[in-house]
Amino acid sequence: MLRKSVFALAGLMILTALPAVAGKVGFVDVEKAAATVQQGKEAIREFEQWAAPRRKRLNALKAVAIKAAQQLAKERGVASDAVLEKLQDKAVKAKRAFEDAVREFNRQAGAKRDHLLNTVATRMRTIINEYAKTHGYDAVLVFKPMTIIYLSKTSDLTDTVIKLYNQRFPVVQPTTSTLPGLQERKRK
Fold this sequence. Notes:
Elements: H1 2-22, E1 25-28, H2 30-36, H3 38-75, H4 81-134, E2 139-142, H5 158-168, H6 180-187
Parallel strand pairs: 1-2
Helix pairs in contact: 2-3, 2-5, 3-4, 4-5
């Protein structure tokens, strides 16, 4: 506990001294910005479409595991040792199948999310660098709202970065003229 307090105090001292040492400092909530820009929203929507059927499968596996555990509990004290052993084996296999599927989903979900947001992150880094250089910032730091006690509105560049990102990288909605399959159907 004392060690955490010392680190928190040291961090606070560094943050309060940083503006005096570094000059003009800005902060960006990158998670908020990535989830707010148009391309980030599209990436999140695509991820959710990818994840939905997989979550449904996980829920089904979880239900099977719960049902197997409940059946085992219900039969305990009533069924024979052979039946209990089969039920125990069934419950363990169902639980392992669910746990394995959760681990695989988490692994794939992390890779998918990283892949979808990689372009957004790269472009956001470019926007932040250009804005910082143009407006005379000596440093721009990534922050999470819960780690900073006070932040002036002029130091929070998040909304500015979101606006600049959406201006430079607008999401173009597909139209019938940009979708070859629809053009062919209309001609027929």
